[in-house]
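In response to a reviewer's request, we include the raw inputs and outputs for one of the modeled complexes. The two entities were modeled together in a single run.
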Amino acid sequence: MEWEVVIGLEIHVQLATKSKIFSGSSIAFGAEPNTQASAVDLAMPGMLPVMNEEALRMAVKFGLAIDAEVSERSVFDRKNYFYPDLPKGYQISQLEYPIVKTGQVDIHLEDGTKKTIGVTRAHLEEDAGKSLHEDFHGMSGIDLNRAGTPLLEIVSEPDLRSAKEAVAYLKKIHSIVTYLGISDGDMSQGSMRCDCNVSLRPKGQEEFGTRTEIKNVNSFRFVEKAINTEIERQMYILEDGGSIEQETRLYDADKDETRSMRSKEFANDYRYFPDPDLLPIEIDQAYIEEVRQTLPELPEAKISRFCSDYGLSDTDAGILAASREQADYFEAVATKSGDAKMAANWVMGELAKYLNQNGLEISQCPVSTDALGGLIARIKDNTISGKIAKDVFDVMWTEGGEADAIIEAKGLKQVTDTGAIEAIVDEVLANNAAQVEQYRSAEEAKRGKMIGFFVGQTMKASKGKANPQQVNQILKQKLDG
Amino acid sequence: MLPESVSELLKGLESKSFSSEEITRAYLDKIKQQNDSLNCFITVTEEQALEAAKASDQRRANGTSGPLDGIPVAHKDLFCTTGTTTTCASRMLENFIPPYESTVTRKFAEAGAISLGKTNMDEFAMGSSNENSYYGPVKNPWNLEYVPGGSSGGSASAVAAGLCAAATGTDTGGSIRQPAAFCGITGLKPTYGRVSRLGMIAFASSLDQGGPMARTAEDTAILLNVMAGHDPKDSTSSTHPVEDYTASLNQDLSGTRIGLPKEYFSGNLNADTGKSLEAAIKVYESLGATVEEISLPHTELSVPAYYVIAPAEASANLSRFDGVRYGHRCDSPKDLEDLYRRSRAEGFGAEVQRRILVGTYALSAGYFDAYYRQAQKIRRLIKEDFVRAFDHIDAILCPTTPGAAFKIGSKSDDPVQMYLEDIFTVPTSLAGLPAIALPCGELDGLPVGMQLIGNYFNESKLLNLAHRFQSETDWHQRRPQI
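The model returned the following structure tokens for the whole complex.
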């Protein structure tokens, strides 16, 4: 049977506020356990939550960025369950009246098409603390530094049809939240975590199949692998005539498999009800408009602009606009060099390669946009060849400095003096008399390939500095002459 | 012989008739003599009180005294006090010493008040008789075989017996007003949001409200001046401007329209209590007020709605007492489940457990709509009843309780009968309105109280009405013989 995959994602985004959502504690990552936990975070008796307005503003920004309706009135609820790293015995979240209602985002698929994915809702909530199970002699340690960290939970419609689409959507949300500056989006530190709801249905069937939820997947790669693994597992069961049990599963990256965590019968009854310690959040259109004024250019707008202003392809524009830092870097290089296409190729090519090899983000790039722009300008004005430029770039990366200074210091300036090139060519021809003879006796059609040998020899003799176009031209004249 | 009211004590301190240290010692002596039989204090902070009194006398000598400087008060033991055990009358918090101060107790301290200690109460403020305390029942000073009411029973008993000049209480469904009525003192539940809840251990967050308990309406006004005000650390506290609540105490009552809700004067009301109220109504008429019958049609739904909403909120509020970070923890738990079960089973008394179970049930999947949502609808209807009434009246006069105090043990086996004690106080709590309870009669040697309910943030009118009544009568001056 042919199956259709149906996927919906619930993405938890940690908001980049200065302090926690309901207390003044810092949310900085990596502090000593329980040093960032106040009486409120510890749920000491009589302590009360006070909403952090910055978290609200960030949620509103996100709502506006995905063209969603932002609720003028939203309500915090208590989600009740007992766990040692949940100090109050309930999590403050939003159930019935979320801050952000239905919206949508566009994703770009590999075949070059665009697909619109619905966002059901996004709501504010607080994170729990952490339970540490090692080094406590059979007991568990509790670290409440994370308790009360503001989260925005973004719930998609079941619009995704493959693991690749799910990853494209996740990346899109990642780029939106980082563009907005409302999250650092660092998945390795848990700033973005993802629950994947996966089900299969016979192709053509309208009704959804039974879904499973894979909890807390924390990288783009794992999302793709976890979903594909789960699709395979479900397909195997269904093909065998079995049925899927609605349950929560965990993805084990080491074994590349998903495992049952708890089934529906053991699902918690969270007994949600409005939190009486917090008044409903009431905002007006003026507030929403004020936030709208602070929105930066968003990925979709940037992609279209890159295509129309710089003549880039949709794919290239999409890659460059994936992060705000990369897009800004590219634009600065394009401006400085005066050649957007070359700038795009360098940022996506050589620069990306070096960043990757060194495990750096573009924000940590040792080569400034001015330096790279200056380098490209020198290729453009024929001071150096593209090949020499890569050597110059390597020097820039390791030692720093501007293109002109490096070219000067290392004597890499391209030779464009016809006389000088002619002299080298003459020498090459003299040293390779047999090949010259062969060339001259060959048919016209074969000569094109044969000339490559002489070009190579001449470039080698010039230590790569001779202008390749001129070398080609002079060789042709002399050989065909 | 020292004066008894806060207002007179302040005058005496000001005129140097006595020092704060002297009166503090006098109260501490009285506590020593009577607390064994009344059981109204859980903790007496003698040393700190004497030190604070000396500091207060110093301030008065320097001319830098605050509005309550040198006045010995007591705080209900659910207001967190830095360095002093705050138990909520529960085994769960038997050894809990908060590292922070509640806004209310901080304001008292800043006003110069001397804290004598922490008063007994129903465990986690759940009860109407003060029999639900881990520290044993509080006795009514008018008759030691009778309950003082609850949950602020320790505060009411201490004020009535003269073990402190005034006290703080909290009122969720009547916990200030009912014990004030049973002990013959004056107690005010302010408008919800008037007094900060920060550092006040929560029972039902949408209903809990701290307030003053004192000998007279005037004292209550003096205390409210200190307690009231917006607290940025309590999101539900109101920014409504604070008045000087003593300013309009003596205002003329002619033209004041008093409503008598017919639902409060039928069925449940004891006949003798009714007579005392009739006499009180006559006093008001003689002062120029007009009286008319009004209707609050949803009154009878208030107790069932209250006993869904309050336990529902409590079930979540009390989840933090899990034996993990503070409070009672059972001995050698086998696993996490065992830690939760035994710590909570051992730490909470029967009534607290009952309400947690009721509240958990009311919020459960499949029952939420039938109970919690329905109760919230009733809450809105009750509020609308009051809003309609306040369209054309200034205050409501009604009983505080169906009858006078009852005997210890007489209702403790029947929770529903006990809950019905709250019929006249919970509607106001559900609506979030201010109400004051004050004595207006006596029955078989026990005080009988009336209740005045005001419009939102109109505490001044209530205090004005109560004060004028007390200027004409002497019920508030009667003392138990102990």
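As requested, we also summarize the result in words. Residues 220-239 of chain A form the longest helix (20 residues). Chain A is about 40% helix and 20% strand.
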